[in-house]
What we know:
Elements: E1 5-11, H1 16-32, E2 51-58, E3 64-72, H2 80-85, H3 92-100, E4 105-113, H4 122-136, E5 141-146, H5 151-156, E6 160-162, E7 169-171, E8 178-185, H6 196-205
Parallel strand pairs: 4-5
Antiparallel strand pairs: 1-2, 2-3, 3-4, 5-8, 6-8, 7-8
Helix pairs in contact: 4-6
Amino acid sequence: MLGKFTVQIARAIDRYDIAHEFFLKHIEVLKKHNVKGITSIKPQWKYMPNVYVIAVYDNISDEMIGGMRLEVSSRSNLLPFESALSSEFSNVHSFVEHYRDNGGVCEFSGLWVNSTHNKQGIPEFMTKLGISLSRTLCIKYAFAFANNYSRPITERLGFISETVGGESVFLYPDERYPTQLMMKDCLTEELEYVSIDHQLKVRKAL
């Protein structure tokens, strides 16, 4: 994997150049798939100190070909899934607060891959890096919205389905995408599938 690609991991406010390129590339991918209504696409995250960016570059073209964000929950900043569900599920804030007060909580959001690099394992690779980053930041719980494509990846990596307001499936960002809210305990579960190289790469980038 790392022979073909280079990874950059940084706080969005520390590397605006990476964050802005990520933002533009993500919009391009969403437009190609006619996807609208994603709460995390709003550009404000580029200026938030609790947002980290994982960006993957092709070593031949030097082009950014994939990315994912890790957003850390705080009382002043809602997680993307929290914003997406708040109009329909008023208890989502207390749901997040419970996890935030019992070890910390983050969300893996905005995952995208350029269509030229599909089927190369990049989404799973970035998710593994996100788990390592969560551990490095001492954040216990990681959440992710997972559709029919990404759910098998999260399940392989030990995520389990959570319910909000008694619901476990959400049509997000629209009715074409039955989506589940997946959660992983990043601190106490075994992480044999996250290599030491991944963890070292995260530490060097922070």
